[in-house]
Design brief:
This protein is mainly α. 51% of the residues lie in helices and 7% in strands. The protein has three helices and two strands, in the order βααβα. Helix 1 (21-47) runs antiparallel to helix 2. Pfam families: DUF7318.
Length: 128
């Protein structure tokens, strides 16, 4: 579904999410695995596995698996359950973000004192 509007904020393209059952089941299974690994990491942390060299490496590996599993959950959710939406944005020239008008590309004199020059250097968008 797309619209022909070209004003700022119009939805240019909208594709609904697939919402497949297989992805939902995979997310639930990955969440169960996530809970098991979080419990294992917590148990190892409380029982002192991190005090030995091999136990510390094991806890680091379990923590890495936790974050990788979470990344797969979020990737599946984004791909299968979020719609693909493209909106129209206003195109700007490079100088428009910093300056007010095109004739002010070289900048203007802000102040003559040293403190005014420091304020202008630290915060260049002052009184835009």
């Amino acid at each position: 579904m797309s619209s022909s509007g070209s004003t700022y904020g119009d939805i240019h393209r909208y594709e609904p999410a697939r919402e497949s059952t297989a992805a939902a089941i995979a997310i639930v299974l990955l969440a169960i695995i996530e809970v098991v690994f979080v419990f294992m990491f917590t148990y190892g942390l409380v029982s002192g596995w991190g005090l030995s060299d091999t136990g510390n490496m094991f806890l680091g590996g379990v923590l890495a698996v936790i974050f990788i599993d979470l990344a797969f959950i979020l990737a599946l959710y984004r791909k299968e359950f979020l719609p693909d939406v493209m909106i129209v944005k206003k195109r700007r020239r490079k100088w428009e973000d910093v300056y007010i008008r095109e004739d002010q590309v070289e900048g203007t004199e802000f102040g003559t004192g040293a403190w005014d020059q420091v304020k202008r250097a630290v915060y260049p968008y002052y009184k835009r």
